[in-house]
């Protein structure tokens, strides 16, 4: 009985159940994709922005809205962790999995997996709408798997599960929803806009290696190699998760719940 409770399958099943039974979680998840689909659909059908002179040569321009959904998915990830701390149910979870590492991995796997699947479905749906609307000359008749379309859509889609995973990591790091959300907006969202005013020119380039800057390179789908290429961008984005996730894991193992 005890072995079943702490198995990997049991942990994943537990996190899956929590996702759909805790109202704040599935409502936040639904809001993220409803907002993303709604705004992208409006942009596609309206066609004015995507058909402008600046954007008419970019077939995947509608994915520019995806970072909006990412913001909500960061909140979703944060709530997936901090909700248990605020309710005290984290103690029961840790009794079932005393090594704790599996709990963090299960939360990350379920949140990221669900966001990834819904992200793929969203991109397929919106690409279909794009073809029906025909408002973007560069995208007319272009398959989703055409390289000119695929890499940009893939980069945009990856932003969504990345947001959920980043939220899980930040929530695990500080254990408080308000603090984790403020940390995200203060450091990752607003930091690159504010910090240049306080940094010497010799250090300003460091901000190019923030996670959102790396995600912007991936979303460009190869249209730009500034300030670095897609491979470096993927490494930078993964490195942030690795460092923050490692810190979260260490604190989870060493702190009381």
TrEMBL record:
The keyword Disulfide bond does not apply. The keyword Secreted does not apply. It comes from Myceligenerans pegani. The chain crosses the membrane at residues 25-44, 64-83, 104-129, 149-170, 177-199, 228-252. This is ABC transporter permease. Keywords: Membrane, Transmembrane, Transmembrane helix. It holds the Pfam family ABC2_membrane_4.
């Amino acid at each position: 009985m005890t072995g079943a409770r702490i198995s990997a399958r049991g942990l994943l099943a537990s996190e899956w159940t929590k996702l759909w039974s805790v109202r704040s979680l599935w409502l936040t998840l639904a809001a993220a994709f409803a907002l993303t689909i709604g705004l992208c659909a409006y942009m596609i059908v309206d066609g004015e922005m995507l058909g402008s002179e600046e954007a008419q040569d970019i077939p995947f321009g509608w994915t520019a809205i995806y970072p909006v959904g990412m913001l909500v998915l960061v909140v979703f990830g944060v709530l997936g962790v901090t909700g248990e701390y605020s309710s005290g149910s984290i103690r029961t979870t840790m009794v079932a999995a005393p090594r704790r590492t599996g709990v963090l991995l299960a939360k990350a796997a379920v949140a990221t997996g669900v966001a990834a699947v819904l992200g793929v479905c969203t991109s397929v749906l919106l690409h279909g709408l794009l073809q029906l609307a025909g408002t973007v000359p560069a995208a007319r008749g272009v398959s989703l798997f055409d390289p000119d379309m695929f890499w940009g859509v893939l980069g945009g889609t990856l932003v969504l599960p990345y947001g959920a995973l980043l939220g899980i990591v930040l929530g695990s790091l500080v254990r408080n929803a308000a603090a984790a959300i403020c940390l995200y907006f203060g450091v990752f969202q607003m930091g690159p806009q504010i910090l240049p005013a306080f940094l010497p020119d010799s250090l300003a380039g460091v901000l190019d290696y923030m996670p959102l800057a790396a995600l912007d390179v991936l979303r460009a789908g190869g249209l730009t190699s500034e300030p670095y290429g897609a491979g470096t961008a993927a490494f930078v984005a993964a490195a942030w998760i690795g460092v923050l996730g490692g810190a979260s894991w260490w604190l989870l193992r060493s702190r009381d719940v």
